[in-house]
Amino acid sequence: MKIFYTCLLVIFCGYTAAAQSQSETAADLPPGWWLIPKTETRLKFGGYVKMDLIHDFNPIASPDFFDVTKIPTDGSEGQSTHIHAKETRFNLDVRTHTKVGELRAFVEGDFYGTNGAFRLRHAFVEINDKWLAGQWWSNFMDESMIPNTLDFEKPGAYLFARNPMLRYKHALSNDAYLAFALEEPHANAQAPAQAGAFENPLPDLTGRYRLTKPWGHLQVSAFAAKLAYRFDTNETDEVSLYGGSVSGQFNVVKTDRLFYQVAYGPGVARFRGGMSAALNANGELEALTDLGYTFGYERHWSPSLYSIFVYNHGEVDNTEGQPSSAVTQGSYAAADLIWKFTEKAFVGVEYLWGLRKDLSEADGTANRLQLSIKYAFN
User: Fold this and answer.
1) CATH top-level class of 42-88+95-100+133-376
2) Distance between CA atoms of residues 96 and 41, nearest Å
3) 238-289 tens-digit pLDDT
């Protein structure tokens, strides 16, 4: 009997020590993280709720976001007011230590799907901050300098793409790395007159070099891709796409920042939702050379009040086979004032201006005023 009580005491002491160790481990986690009992796996729920009240002083066929390519160029007039909460999003971040390093899984979605349906934004697995498999920001873009406008669309000629990919990142030093990725290709181009279908024979190859310093960061990116159109006769018309981008930011004063991005190349629009190829005078596919540049400044007037000023411009070297309604230029400007009335919530107002020019030299402008309220719960 004495041995029995001794065993019970040992088990109880062991259980208490394990529980205490688990409790201490959980207590060491950053705020918001939860430790799954009896594991080393931790998770965090995040996201936010955002309401947008939008008033358009001119017609534009994208009421939920400010897409300058949707501005009509026929001289039409009209005003409209719209309220929605589609940008509201949820995410789950899961991390655990393994023998190959830290393993991370991340999933996020919002309500910009068809008729406000929940849709996937990001979903990936990452191993030890080196290998990434899943859907994430394109390796060709600079996700850390996305302009924090109230508008969801962001500048029209700004590189902005989420792609399924397999990516490898190699650290060159504590403040620099190289990353290469194979990404899902997107065939957005003008189709030839003959019957057939577009093909993506190869994944997009993207690469970046990134340097981060106390003064800010610098990123140089490049991509290469191939687009093909297979006629019903089984013949193909292929075109090569490639381009480069330079982006970064300078930290100004204590909290302000100046950011920029310049992208150029035949097919660069592939990474901003535009057309990457069109028909030449002979009816053959030709890559559309695209130039886009973005400059912005984020100004903090006080710890709770800040503004963002952004200007973006894009130009396309159109081909002779494109219709006269093809977009040849687009400009985007935004200025806002945002007040953080609590640590995780703000209310802001933003003015947006856009310009679209067509190959026919017809143009149109749009002006928008947007009021947004957001509460983040991560």
Assistant:
1) mainly beta
2) 4
3) 999 999 999 999 999 889 999 999 999 999 999 988 899 999 999 999 999 9
